[in-house]
Amino acid sequence: NAGVTQTPKFRVLKTGQSMTLLCAQDMNHEYMYWYRQDPGMGLRLIHYSVGEGTTAKGEVPDGYNVSRLKKQNFLLGLESAAPSQTSVYFCASRTGTGPYEQYFGPGTRLTVT
Amino acid sequence: GENVEQHPSTLSVQEGDSAVIKCTYSDSASNYFPWYKQELGKRPQLIIDIRSNVGEKKDQRIAVTLNKTAKHFSLHITETQPEDSAVYFCAASKGYNQGGKLIFGQGTELSVKP
C-alpha cells in the first residue's frame, strides 16, 4: 500500500514550457486535491476533484488545468509555465465517506526559470 | 472569501515548556479543523483534528480547543521536546461540502531549544 505518490519529485522548466504532474493513490479515495506551497503562505488549493470525471477550481486555479480520467489518478497540467509557478506542489486524497482526513503525497519541487 | 489566520508565525520555547498556536476562521459553516505538522522537506502529516460538535480533544501531549462562537481554535503542546520542532499548519473545511477542501493558515515555525 503506497498511499499517495507523485511523479516527478523534481523538475526544472524554462518559461513557456509545458508539463504534467501525476498524482496516484491506491486507497480507493473519491476526493483528490492539488495544492501549492510557497514560503510564508501555507498551502493553497489549486483544483480538486470529488470523483472520476469531475474537477473544480480552488483558490488559485489560473495557469493550471487538471484531469481525473481514472479514480486513482489526478493530473495537474501547466500549459505555459511562468516563474510565478515556481513552488512545491502537493497532491492529497481522502475518502468521500467516513473520516475527513486528507493524506498527502511527498511533493514535487518545480522551478521555472 | 474563506480565510484562516494563524498566529504566531514563529515560536521559540525551551524544552519542557508548553507551546500554543492560535487560528481564526471566517466561514461559520466550517465544521472540521485539522492540524498538520511539516518537517523540512517532508509532506504535511496530520497530528490532531477536531469537529465542530466537540469543544476539546486530547492526544497525549497534544490538545486542540475550539470556540465556535468566536470562530477560533488552538493547538496546545505540553512538555515540548526538540523533535516537536517543525512548521505547524491549521486548516478549516466544511466536511463533505465543497469537496471537503481545506483552507490553510500561513503556518507557525516552532523551535524547541534543548
Keywords, separated by commas or semicolons:
heterodimer; A: 113 residues; mainly beta; B: 114 residues; six-stranded mixed sheet; 0% helix; 54% strand
Describe the structure.
The complex is a heterodimer of chains A (113) and B (114). Chain A has strands spanning 4-7, 10-13, 19-25, 31-37, 43-49, 56-57, 65-67, 73-78, 87-94, 103-104, 108-112. Chain A has 113 residues and is mainly beta. In chain A, strands 2, 4, 5, 6, 9, 10 and 11 form a 7-stranded mixed sheet that branches. In chain A, strands 1-3-8-7 form a 4-stranded antiparallel sheet, with no helix packed on it. In chain A, a hairpin with an 8-residue loop joins strand 9 and strand 10 (103-104). The mean pLDDT of chain A is 94. Chain B is built from no helices and 11 strands. Chain B is an all-beta fold and 114 residues long. In chain B, the strands form 2 sheets. In chain B, strands 2, 4, 5, 9, 10 and 11 form a 6-stranded mixed sheet that branches. Chain B has a 5-stranded antiparallel sheet with strand order 1-3-8-7-6, with no helix packed on it. The model of chain B has no long low-confidence stretch (mean pLDDT 94). Chain B has strands at residues 4-7, 10-14, 19-25, 32-38, 45-51, 56-59, 62-67, 72-77, 86-92, 103-104, 108-113. The A-B interface holds A 31, 33, 35, 40-45, 48-50, 56, 58-59, 90, 94, 96, 100-102, 104-107 and B 1, 6, 9, 32, 34, 42-46, 49, 51, 89, 93, 95-96, 99-107.
